[in-house]
């Protein structure tokens, strides 16, 4: 989208399974192992269970499409309700219309694709893989946390039912692994974002915490309710966004260079409430670690969803 960084946000998030969780690595041909094993990866500190960032991001995207689908009247419409995805619509328009060939992809995408990316547009949001330890932990701390969470991985058995007869099918017994508890840690990073986009993410966190969004495999069996807790937030603002206010790239709309991006928020893309910040010659930094401040600033981002829908 941009060749220049204007604003960046890094969220450190603790994720706690409220119900058992299964993120399956696929069927195994080892008869001594469960039919479906939990995802594992080898790290420099040993083997551990983990959740791929794509498994979380996919659910968040689907959730945003569901809640914005009919409520959002922005153009272009949310593409999940269309026969074609945003990048397909853009390419088709480029073939038929010479003017659209010169337009930047960002302005021709729906709000969800602007946030989560498309076939020809990078995502504003990056979601890291989620591990049972913080990346800043010492090797000893990581090993201790991996050992602790391994004890919470257990096996369950399932059975396939014949939907016509209501009886069990022959050879239908299968075994799968679940994570029954523990804590997982990951990072969510925004780059060159409008303020409604982090606000949308915090709304999706709230929906997840209430159990309306579920993650992983076998959600219809009650698995996959996760609790998301933002532990810290760091915001960097560069160039024209540098200063004492938290701003989104929408405020750049007044600059002729960026007007073609078609930002939704325009001059309203900032937070009026003042928060502590540090300033140097290159950028401004806002750091939130205390629970009270985190609650205040996330509430401000949530308010930007209203502004976005009304703009």
Sequence-ordered SSE layout with sheet pairings:
Blueprint: E1 7-17, E2 24-27, E3 36-38, E4 40-43, E5 46-49, H1 53-68, H2 86-96, H3 98-101, H4 111-116, E6 125-127, H5 139-150, E7 153-161, E8 168-179, E9 184-191, H6 196-209, E10 226-238, E11 246-247, E12 270-271, E13 278-279, E14 283-288, H7 291-310
Antiparallel strand pairs: 1-9, 1-10, 2-3, 4-5, 6-9, 7-8, 10-14, 11-12, 13-14
Helix pairs in contact: 6-7
What does this structure look like?
With 311 residues, the protein is an alpha+beta fold. It has one domain. Helices cover 27% and strands 27% of the residues. The chain contains seven helices and 14 strands. It has helices spanning 53-68, 86-96, 98-101, 111-116, 139-150, 196-209, 291-310, and strands at 7-17, 24-27, 36-38, 40-43, 46-49, 125-127, 153-161, 168-179, 184-191, 226-238, 246-247, 270-271, 278-279, 283-288. The strands form five sheets. It has a six-stranded antiparallel sheet with strand order 6-9-1-10-14-13. A hairpin with an 8-residue loop joins strand 2 and strand 3. Helix 6 packs across helix 7 (291-310). The protein is globular, with a radius of gyration of 22 Å. The model has no long low-confidence stretch (mean pLDDT 86).
């Amino acid at each position: 989208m941009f060749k220049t960084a204007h604003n960046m946000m890094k969220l450190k998030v603790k994720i706690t399974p409220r119900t058992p969780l299964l993120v399956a690595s696929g069927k195994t041909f080892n008869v001594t192992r469960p039919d479906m094993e939990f995802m594992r990866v080898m790290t420099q500190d040993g083997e551990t269970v983990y959740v791929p960032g794509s498994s979380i991001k996919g659910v968040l995207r689907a959730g945003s499409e569901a809640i914005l689908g009919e409520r959002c009247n922005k153009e272009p419409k949310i593409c999940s309700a269309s026969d074609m995805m945003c990048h397909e619509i853009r390419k088709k328009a480029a073939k038929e219309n010479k003017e659209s060939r010169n337009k930047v992809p960002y302005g021709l995408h729906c709000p969800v694709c602007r946030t989560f990316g498309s076939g020809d547009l990078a995502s504003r949001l990056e979601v890291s893989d989620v591990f049972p330890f913080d990346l800043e932990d010492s090797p000893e701390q990581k090993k201790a946390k991996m050992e602790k969470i391994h004890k919470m991985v257990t096996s369950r058995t399932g059975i396939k039912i014949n939907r016509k007869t209501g009886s069990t099918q022959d050879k239908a017994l299968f075994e799968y692994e679940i994570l029954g508890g523990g804590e997982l840690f990951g990072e969510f990073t925004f780059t060159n974002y409008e303020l409604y986009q982090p606000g949308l993410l915090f709304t999706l966190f709230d929906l997840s915490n209430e159990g309306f969004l579920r993650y992983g495999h076998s959600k219809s069996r009650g698995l996959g309710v996760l609790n998301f807790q933002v532990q810290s937030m760091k915001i960097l603002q560069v160039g024209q966004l540098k200063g004492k206010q938290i701003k989104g790239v929408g405020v750049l709309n007044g600059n002729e260079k960026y007007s073609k991006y078609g930002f939704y928020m325009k001059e309203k893309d900032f937070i009026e409430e003042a928060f502590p910040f540090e300033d140097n010659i290159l950028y401004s930094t806002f750091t939130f670690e205390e629970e009270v401040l985190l609650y205040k600033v996330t509430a401000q981002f949530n308010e930007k969803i209203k502004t976005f829908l009304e703009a």
